[in-house]
Specification:
By secondary structure, the protein is α+β, with helices and mostly antiparallel strands. The protein has a domain of 102 residues: Immunoglobulin-like (Sandwich). It is 18% helix and 37% strand. The chain has two helices and ten strands; from the N terminus they run ααββββββββββ. Strands 1, 2, 3, 4, 5, 6, 7, 8, 9 and 10 form a ten-stranded mixed sheet that branches. A hairpin with a 4-residue loop joins strand 3 and strand 4.
């Protein structure tokens, strides 16, 4: 346990060392998720939950061959009024808004900064090139003003 007062340099160094060791005990993934959760907060945007990720269903049985590196990943995010279907390819992230409708799709990085913007056409199709990397989310604004954001995801 750390003391609240430091009467000597030895105690201060011991307490600082304990603090650093405690920080290292938290997995980096949890620290990254925590920072991302507070990086971009939009009260009016509805959160679209991930209901399908093809990568989660690809667990190969023991002894089975791995899928080729060029395979595509499919993800589906939903709210009560909008579904966002995504396909992650080797060099792009493409998607469709369902029901089909025009809108704007912003790609936000883990710091909440817009890393790219795509226009969804009248059938809801949009694409980002190159494929995003790292932890990010999509922020969708439909033509009628409805705002939706996805969960933080690694594409």
């Amino acid at each position: 346990m750390m003391s609240t007062r430091w009467n000597d340099d030895e105690q201060l160094l011991a307490d600082l060392g304990a603090a650093i060791r405690a920080r290292r005990a938290v997995p980096d993934r949890l620290v990254e998720i925590g920072k991302a959760a507070f990086a971009w907060r939009t009260v009016e945007a509805e959160l679209a939950g991930l209901i399908y990720d093809s990568a989660a269903s690809r667990a190969a049985p023991t002894g089975a061959r791995a899928e080729p590196a060029t395979s595509r990943r499919a993800l589906t995010f939903v709210t009560a009024e909008l579904t966002i279907e995504l396909e992650v390819g080797p060099d792009s992230l493409s998607g469709q808004l369902v029901p089909p409708q025009p809108g704007t799709v912003d790609l936000r990085d883990r710091d909440g900064v817009t890393a790219g913007t795509a226009r969804a056409d009248e059938v809801g199709w949009f694409v980002f090139r190159p494929r995003p990397s790292g932890l990010c989310r999509l922020q969708v604004r439909t033509a009628d003003g409805h705002e939706v954001r996805t969960e933080w995801t690694r594409f």
